[in-house]
Design brief:
The chain is mainly α. α2 crosses α7 and α4 crosses α5.
Length: about 160
């Protein structure tokens, strides 16, 4: 249901729809490979679907899609959507925290947060067609899970 609701939210914007679908797919895979418990997996996958929900509000309000403004505008929108779908309160709270911090790469406080960041990075590195040096830097700074590191090496043909 959330998947459909997010597609409706971004109706007419296939780039953003494709982005959250790719982040969700990678986050789901990494979470399963890292053996997350069921609730953490649910939080991760939910957050992956809504992680950029604040982007339109950021663009309208601040005329930029900057990550800090997405983090500022996203949690209230995510909370509203998840409440409308009757998600449980503890899940909504954690998802909103992740939405509010998914562009903040210091003080990562849980495996769900780490995997969301890694999945978003894998997609963004490709979508933004970054240099090999930028991929190497991200690999060394951001990627901590064995699955995320393996996917990054495979996707970008790294020999590390």
């Amino acid at each position: 249901m959330l998947y459909e609701k997010m597609m409706q939210y971004y109706a007419g914007d296939p780039k953003r729809i494709q982005h959250f679908i790719k982040v969700h797919s990678l986050a789901s895979y990494i979470g399963k490979q890292e053996h997350l418990d069921a609730k953490t997996q649910q939080i991760l996958e939910t957050a992956a679907l809504v992680h950029d929900i604040g982007i339109q509000a950021a663009e309208q309000k601040y005329h930029t899609a900057s990550g800090k403004y997405q983090e500022k505008e996203g949690p209230a929108l995510a909370e509203q959507m998840l409440n409308s779908l009757q998600y449980e309160k503890t899940i909504i709270e954690r998802v909103c925290f992740l939405v509010a911090h998914h562009h903040t790469y210091s003080n990562i406080d849980g495996i769900d947060y780490q995997i969301l960041v890694e999945a978003d990075f894998l997609v963004n590195l490709y979508e933004e067609n970054v240099s090999k040096n930028a991929v190497d830097s991200a690999y060394n700074r951001v990627f901590k899970t064995e699955t995320g590191r393996r996917l990054c090496r495979t996707m970008f043909g790294m020999t590390q």
